[in-house]
Amino acid sequence: MTRAFPNIAKCWKNFISRLTAYLKLLFQGNTVEVLPALAGPVLNLGGGGPDVEAAIQWMINQVRGTAKVNVVVLRTYGGNDYNHLIYRMSGVNSVQTLVISNRQDANRDDIVQKVLNAGVVFFAGGDQCQYIRSWKNTKLEKAVASVYRRGGAVGGTSAGAMILSDFIYDACACEDPIETKDALEDPYQNITFTYNFFQWSHLQGTIIDTHFDSRKRMGRIMAFIARQIQDGVSRSALGIAISEETSVVVDKYGKAKVLGRNAAYFVLGDHPPEICKPRTPLTYSDYKIWRIPCGDTFDLNNPPARGYYFRSVKRGRFNSDPY
């Protein structure tokens, strides 16, 4: 009997060793990172040019509570220059740039998991046409939406902001972007739109444009707005037009605030255009325009009943300076 005890002890030791190995294998294969509760969701819409660092920090602060968050930067080309900028901000646990230039990568489980582990997702500038081609209807798109639903932050600059609107000017087969003169002369030539990409509750019925002041894009966003109504997409459309070195941040209640150096414009078309058809200059009377300077706010869910001015386009020409 006494000689059996060592055998029992040895068997028990082997059993514990095998059980431990089994449990370790089990949990390694099923462990999900414990993510902090997030206090959003919020949005950050950047107008291009030098980034508004205060707007990126605002995103982080709005969602993180007392914890630190992971930040993922998404782009279809370029480097990881955002990593150093964002990592030194307050409340950041990690920053990773993912260059995802094709649909195959946008459906990879390892990439999707990195996005799901983030509390903040930021789209770099680039080409909205390439973003749509590479990411629409992929697992990546669903993962970004999941971060937002969980109370996270989603932002972008330039093309990375334009893809966040409800109606997206998609640069027509990735050709050179249309500008104001041509858009007003013919609101259909080389102007196409993408729908049902990212759909955020406070951006329903919107179309975003960027680099606004420096490239004088008021006319083109007016053409974009007219098209949504003329084509039967919507009975009204709100343009969110953001200048360079400027951001529009949107809190979880739909209140937008302008940060940065310049102004943002909110341009509303709430009635059908008089003339909006191919090969014909646009005629559209009485757009409502709110010019919102840095530090001021705009309620996206209830546009203010005052503070706007009217501008019209007749035969492709403004009736007066729209800015």
From TrEMBL:
Organismal lineage: Bacteria, Bacillati, Cyanobacteriota, Cyanophyceae, Nostocales
Organism whose genome encodes this protein: Trichormus variabilis (strain ATCC 29413 / PCC 7937)
GO molecular function term, any single one: peptidyl-dipeptidase activity
Similarity remark: Belongs to the peptidase S51 family.
Bilayer-crossing regions: none
Keyword presence, Protease: yes
Function of the molecule: Exopeptidase that catalyzes the hydrolytic cleavage of multi-L-arginyl-poly-L-aspartic acid (cyanophycin; a water-insoluble reserve polymer) into aspartate-arginine dipeptides.
Database matches in InterPro entries: Class_I_gatase-like, Peptidase_S51, Peptidase_S51_cyanophycinase
Catalysed transformations (reactions): [L-4-(L-arginin-2-N-yl)aspartate](n) + H2O = [L-4-(L-arginin-2-N-yl)aspartate](n-1) + L-4-(L-arginin-2-N-yl)aspartate
Name of the protein: Cyanophycinase
Family annotation (Pfam families): Peptidase_S51
Keywords recorded for this protein, A-Z: Hydrolase, Protease, Serine protease
Active site positions: S158 (charge relay system), H211 (charge relay system), E244 (charge relay system)
Top EC class of this enzyme: hydrolase
Swiss-Prot/TrEMBL GO biological process terms: proteolysis
EC assignment: 3.4.15.6
